[in-house]
């Protein structure tokens, strides 16, 4: 009886050791830990881990993709303008690494480029909206050409509309069609579980839909 | 039982490091001032074993690696650093020092001497379109907005930018690296007109009040550079109506190209109707304009732009006779047809090379009728070409090399309205060729240097000139820097003289030259900028009229063979001054304000001056306080500008001593004051984004005087603007392409 247990335990350990060689497990675990917290300290820790994962599994485009994503997110949360730009410098570098592995951009790297442009703008909107607003739009357009079914593209557009003042064509009402469109596409994506194929955003989109509904009179 | 446990342990032993980690590695990360660095990633190189530092810079992680390893620390604001460690047990007390990431910790060093950087973004842009239209007193006119910046004189009765002691023709307006021949609408003498540039046609406006790049020449003072917009974001329709007319334009955007067609009709009747004008307009300024613009991006890093536009205008005004003082006025009619075209192409190659080429053709035809004095038909033209290449050796070093050709000239027929009906026909045609090279080098993070040299040749005068230029900047702190700029700037005699008949020939003339020395210090942080600049400018070989018996103070005179003058380069002078600029977009939420103050001391002998004197367009002190405030609740922006200038010198023949030239232009006018207010209200009507705007210049109706004219019998008349106070309102509506196709 006991022998059997030992064997099971040993096999399990060996199996863990073997799967640890696959980047998907640590990547998924770290990404989820990053994406499900709002604690800046934890975010920084997990982003650092993501960077180590990308160092180890350097030939996987998705590992670099997630580092870029995490740095862009950190930039949004950071207060110091210079640090925000520095995070985005890192995000851009990692995004380029991802693209060079892919040989050319795919829809997800375009969406990422749009997100980085948006984060750049957010550092100094008054002076930057013109340049980075255009980059944001361009990259989303490019993403759409590759894959019109990418929900994250519409989600980002929705968020951007949501935070644009009403007199400039933004606001909750204007954002709603984008969130709805994204929502439908997120549903189609439900079967995707492979972390190497980015599929984040469903919860976030739902959150913003709720917010937009609440504010649709404002 | 015991036996089985020990067996279990035995079995698990090799895997234990995987579960718990073998050795603990801990220590601290600090910066070079010994302060803790938090959030740093500390790891063993080529492994995923690592941790993150806490708020006191402490890190701890476990690893099963042993032997010689490299421990690396990286943090976003610092340069990554590593050091070797040997692991054969727990390692504690590691200290890693990170240097601040210079490129981010310090703003990149930018050469600012001479050029005004009113924004905090590190582009060349000084004022963005929105900055210009929200500057009260600018009337959405690009050039007028520049007069709110240091180094320029306040608006007077005449057109143009008067930069640091220079006359209006000593500053050049440049669009997409092409010189603009007629930057302003033609008007009557003494009635200032708008520039031809609306704020929204340009993505950026850069103004250099001296020490500018070797790319340009033929401007003793400075350069106003406008860059047209590239591809628009989306298709739009734009309509507007205001007190000066109505306009409509449409932009069609395709994937990689766009076509922009616009037209307008101007009629200033309502404008001159609502307020009392100092002059009588018997033909209110009116006209039409049309423009076509095509932009094409053949690839990601290239853009072709083609612009064609035409403007037609007619004005008839009864002005105080500039030839004589007193009560008499004369009728002045001017009809103006302007054509301008520009083609430019820019291509980047692998971020290593840039090629830019542009060509432009412009032609302006003006008919002026000075009743009972003369009628004049005038055609001026300019054809130009430029090609340049830039090589980016690396991010710190690049070299610009280029050449440009300017062919310009004028043809003029004057019919004197005297009994003899004398007709004078004059013309000139000039070809200027130039070549330039400029190196931009940032040898270390805190220091940048830009040496340049320009060669130019005038065919008409058959002279060759070599103009060296140099500018540099050094960081004096993490948010401040000092810059120096200087060089030689050549300019040919103005068209006024090139077309004038004079007794000697062109070969006797040389180019005028100004030598600039500029020093500046700038502090800039978080949307606040403080800038101090001092300069000294020396003028040599200014064109001087010699041979005239008496001094004629009329600046609108026309030289005819009867004037009997000899032109020389015997003129000279200097200008020196101090300027201060403070802009703050941070302290007050939704507010942006700036203060610009310029002090100038300048004297020169040029044109027909009998001796060195301060020119009539110079006020020693100029002050502008510009404020903008956005009221979010009302969706309204309110803007105010207060402008002050000390008195300008004028010529008083009653005190002027002809023999020793004392008391020449020594009297000064009263100070100039003007308070301008403007407001814009934004709202959407369905898909139409609408802006209502109103502006009032010189709200208090201060009766500003720009000078005096004296008649033969000692009578005196004031030189005043056409309007003391102006009121302007209008509405602009734009419809953007409905973005359904995005969904």
UniProtKB/TrEMBL annotation, chain A:
Keywords: Signal. Residues 1-20 form the signal peptide. It comes from the Bacteria. This is DUF4398 domain-containing protein.
From TrEMBL, chain B:
It comes from Nemorincola caseinilytica. The keyword Membrane applies. The lineage of its organism: Bacteria, Pseudomonadati, Bacteroidota, Chitinophagia, Chitinophagales. Keywords: Cell outer membrane, Membrane, Receptor. The keyword Lipid metabolism does not apply. InterPro entries: Beta-barrel_TonB_sf (IPR036942), Carb-bd-like_fold (IPR013784). This is TonB-dependent receptor. Gene3D superfamilies: Carboxypeptidase-like, regulatory domain (2.60.40.1120), TonB-dependent receptor, beta-barrel domain (2.40.170.20). It is found in: Cell outer membrane. SUPFAM superfamilies: Porins, Starch-binding domain-like. It comes from the Bacteria.
């Amino acid at each position: 009886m006991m022998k059997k247990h030992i064997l099971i335990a040993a096999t399990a350990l060996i199996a863990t050791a073997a799967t640890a060689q696959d980047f998907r497990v640590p990547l998924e675990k770290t990404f989820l830990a990053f994406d499900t917290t709002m604690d800046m300290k934890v975010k920084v820790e997990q982003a650092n881990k993501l960077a180590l994962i990308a160092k180890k599994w350097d030939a996987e485009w998705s590992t670099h993709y997630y580092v870029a994503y995490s740095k862009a997110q950190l930039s949004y949360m950071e207060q110091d303008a210079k640090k925000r730009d520095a995070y985005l410098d890192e995000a851009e570098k990692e995004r380029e690494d991802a693209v060079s592995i892919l040989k050319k951009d795919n829809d997800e790297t375009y969406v990422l480029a749009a997100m980085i442009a948006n984060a750049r703008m957010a550092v100094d909107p008054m002076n930057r909206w013109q340049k980075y607003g255009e980059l944001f739009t361009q990259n989303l357009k490019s993403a759409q050409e590759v894959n019109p079914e990418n929900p994250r593209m519409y989600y980002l557009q929705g968020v951007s509309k949501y935070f644009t003042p009403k007199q400039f064509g933004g606001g909750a009402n204007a954002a709603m069609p984008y969130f709805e469109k994204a929502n439908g596409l997120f549903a189609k994506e439900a079967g995707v579980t492979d972390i190497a194929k980015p599929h984040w955003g469903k919860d976030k989109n739902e959150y913003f839909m709720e917010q937009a509904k609440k504010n649709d009179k404002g | 039982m015991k036996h089985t446990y020990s067996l279990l342990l035995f079995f698990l032993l090799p895997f234990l490091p995987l579960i718990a980690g073998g050795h603990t590695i801990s220590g601290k990360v600090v910066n070079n001032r010994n302060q803790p660095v938090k959030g740093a990633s500390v790891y063993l190189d080529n492994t995923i074993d690592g941790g993150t530092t806490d708020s006191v810079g402490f890190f701890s992680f476990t690893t099963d690696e042993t032997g010689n390893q490299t421990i690396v620390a990286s943090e976003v604001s610092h340069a990554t650093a590593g050091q070797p460690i040997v692991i054969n047990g727990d390692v504690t007390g590691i200290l890693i020092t990170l240097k601040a990431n210079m490129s981010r910790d310090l703003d990149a060093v930018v050469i600012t001497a001479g050029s005004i950087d009113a924004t905090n973004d590190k582009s060349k842009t000084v004022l963005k379109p929105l900055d210009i239209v929200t500057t009260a007193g600018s009337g959405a006119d690009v050039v007028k907005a520049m007069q709110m910046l240091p180094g320029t004189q306040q608006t007077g009765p005449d057109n143009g930018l008067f930069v640091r002691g220079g006359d209006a023709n000593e500053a050049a307006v440049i669009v997409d690296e092409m010189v603009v021949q007629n930057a302003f609408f033609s008007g009557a003498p003494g009635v200032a007109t708008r520039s031809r540039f609306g704020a929204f046609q340009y993505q950026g406006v850069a103004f250099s009040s001296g020490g500018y790049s070797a790319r340009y020449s033929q401007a003793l003072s400075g350069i106003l550079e406008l860059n047209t917009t590239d591809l628009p974001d989306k298709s739009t329709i734009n309509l507007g109506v205001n007190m000066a007319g109505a306009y409509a334009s449409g932009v069609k955007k395709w994937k990689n190209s766009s076509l922009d067609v616009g037209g307008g009709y101007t009629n200033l009747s309502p404008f001159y109707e609502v307020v009392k004008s100092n002059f009588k307009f018997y033909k209110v300024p009116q006209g039409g304009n049309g423009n076509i613009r095509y932009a094409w991006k053949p690839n990601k890093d290239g853009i072709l732009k083609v612009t064609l536009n035409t403007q037609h205008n007619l004005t008839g005004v009864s002005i105080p006779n500039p030839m004589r003082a007193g009560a008499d006025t004369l009728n002045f009619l001017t009809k103006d047809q302007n054509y301008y075209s520009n083609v430019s192409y820019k291509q980047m190659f692998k971020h290593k090379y840039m090629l830019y080429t542009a060509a432009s053709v412009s032609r302006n035809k003006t008919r002026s009728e000075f009743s009972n004095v003369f009628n004049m038909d005038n055609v001026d033209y300019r054809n130009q070409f430029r090609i340049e290449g830039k090589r980016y050796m690396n991010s710190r070093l690049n070299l610009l090399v280029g050449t440009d050709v300017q062919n310009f000239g004028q043809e003029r027929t004057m019919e004197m309205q005297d009994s003899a009906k004398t007709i004078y026909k004059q013309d000139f045609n000039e070809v200027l060729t130039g070549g330039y090279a400029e190196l931009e080098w940032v040898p270390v993070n805190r220091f940048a240097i830009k040496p340049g040299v320009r060669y130019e040749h005038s065919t008409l005068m058959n002279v060759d000139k070599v103009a060296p230029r140099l500018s540099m900047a050094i960081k004096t702190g993490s948010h401040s820097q000092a810059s120096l700029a200087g060089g030689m700037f050549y300019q040919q005699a103005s068209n006024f003289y090139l077309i004038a008949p004079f007794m000697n020939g062109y070969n006797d003339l040389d180019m005028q030259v100004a030598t600039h020395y500029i020093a500046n210090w700038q502090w800039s942080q978080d949307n606040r900028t403080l800038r101090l600049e001092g300069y000294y400018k020396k003028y040599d070989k200014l064109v001087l009229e010699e041979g005239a018996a008496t001094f004629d103070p009329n600046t609108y005179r026309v030289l005819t063979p009867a004037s009997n003058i000899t032109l020389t380069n015997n003129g000279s002078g200097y200008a020196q001054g101090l300027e201060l600029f403070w802009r703050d977009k941070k302290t007050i939420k939704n507010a942006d304000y700036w203060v610009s103050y310029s002090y100038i001391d300048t004297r020169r002998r040029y044109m027909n001056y009998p001796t060195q004197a301060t020119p009539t367009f110079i006020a020693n002190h100029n002050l502008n306080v510009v404020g903008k405030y956005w009221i979010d609740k009302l969706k309204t922006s309110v803007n105010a500008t207060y402008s002050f200038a000390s008195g300008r010198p004028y010529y008083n023949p009653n005190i002027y001593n002809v023999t020793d030239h004392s008391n020449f232009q020594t009297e000064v006018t009263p100070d100039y004051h003007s308070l301008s207010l403007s407001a814009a209200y934004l709202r959407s009507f369905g898909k139409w984004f609408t802006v209502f705007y109103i502006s009032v210049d010189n709200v208090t109706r201060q009766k500003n005087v720009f000078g005096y004219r004296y008649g033969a019998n000692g009578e005196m008349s004031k030189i005043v603007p056409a309007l003391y106070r102006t009121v302007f309102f209008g509405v602009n509506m734009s419809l953007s392409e409905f973005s359904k196709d995005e969904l």
